[in-house]
Amino acid sequence: MLIDLSGKTALVTGGSSGIGRAIAKSMLDAGARVFITYLSQANDAAGFVEDARARGRSAEAFALDAGNTEAIRDLFAELDQQKGGVDILVNNAGIVSYVDFLKLDESEWDRMLNVNLKAAMLCAQLTAQSLVRRGKGGRIINISSISGRRAEPRRTHYCVSKAGMDMLTRGLALELASYGITANSVAPGTIRTNMTETALSDPDRHDTIVSRTPMGRIGMPDDLAGIATFLASDHAAFITGQVIHVDGGQLL
User: Fold this and answer.
1) Is residue 71 part of a domain?
2) Shortest CA distance to 22 belongs to which of 233, 192, 223, 165?
3) Structural domain range at position 177
4) How confident is the model at residue 76 (pLDDT cuts 50, 70, 90)?
5) 50 phi-psi bin (left φ>0, alpha ψ -120 to 50, beta other)
């Protein structure tokens, strides 16, 4: 199956490393112009852009704090007014923390929901508004987590944010279908990234996760890239409102 995103522009939030970078590279390889955002990994973001341009691809990186709604609005205004807007949004930027519920304070709850859910909603809304103004269909892909399907100790706030993202996906799919805009979630299991490296460096934790994963390994960012790129393509034009678990069978 040939996936061709030529003529499309994709925005991947949190695209400088990990899952976001793998998705951004896959969409580049499929012919899309790709914008990525980053928070603190400026060197990684610059490296992504340099590598893309060395291969004759079009890529740009933008600094963005996903917890700052005004910064999000400013970025989308710039993309619309100066870059022609985006056709594909990948809401990938996110955070995780581990806090006992009895010690979870309001500020950490708000931080988690703001970055993981509110930012995704706002990016999706601004993307959809732009697409409708331009009379174009498009794709919204939310990177959620299997944690949205199950409670986990010390991560109640994180699990709620990811469950909310999946319901956001369903709401977007329902409300935007008539405009030719699809919305789907990709929900990874345990994937080896900078965010999970500390937990996976514990041999007991690593072995426990592997033992509970029928496919017998930790996932890699590239395991997510193909399905996200497929959902961005014309091959997925009749797929919307779905949550696709990429977890090696962990939920089983």
Assistant:
1) yes
2) 223
3) 9-192+222-246
4) very high
5) alpha
DSSP states along 211-244 = HTSTT-S-B-THHHHHHHHHHHSGGGTT--S-EE
69 found inside a domain: yes
Give the pairing type, strands 88-91 and 59-63. unpaired
CA distances from 30 to 10, 77, 143, 163, 225 (A): 11, 26, 19, 30, 11
How many structural domains compose the chain?
1
Options 38, 98, 158, 179, the catalytic residue: 158
Q: What CATH number corresponds to the domain at position 113? A: 3.40.50.720
Catalytic annotation present for 38 = no
For residues 200 and 209, what is the distance between their CA atoms, to the nearest angstrom? 9
Q: Which residues pair with 185 in a beta bridge?
A: 142, 243
Q: Is residue 207 part of a domain?
A: no
Q: What is the CA radius of gyration of the chain?
A: 17
Task: Establish if 66 belongs to a structural domain.
Answer: yes
Q: pLDDT digit string (tens) for 166-218?
A: 999 999 999 999 999 999 999 999 999 988 988 899 999 999 999 999 999 99
The reported pTM is 0.97
**Residue-by-residue DSSP string for 129-157:** HHHHHTT--EEEEEE--GGGTS--TT-HH
**Is the separation of the CB atoms in 36 and 20 below 8 Å?**
yes
93-114 pLDDT tens trace:
999 999 999 999 999 999 999 9
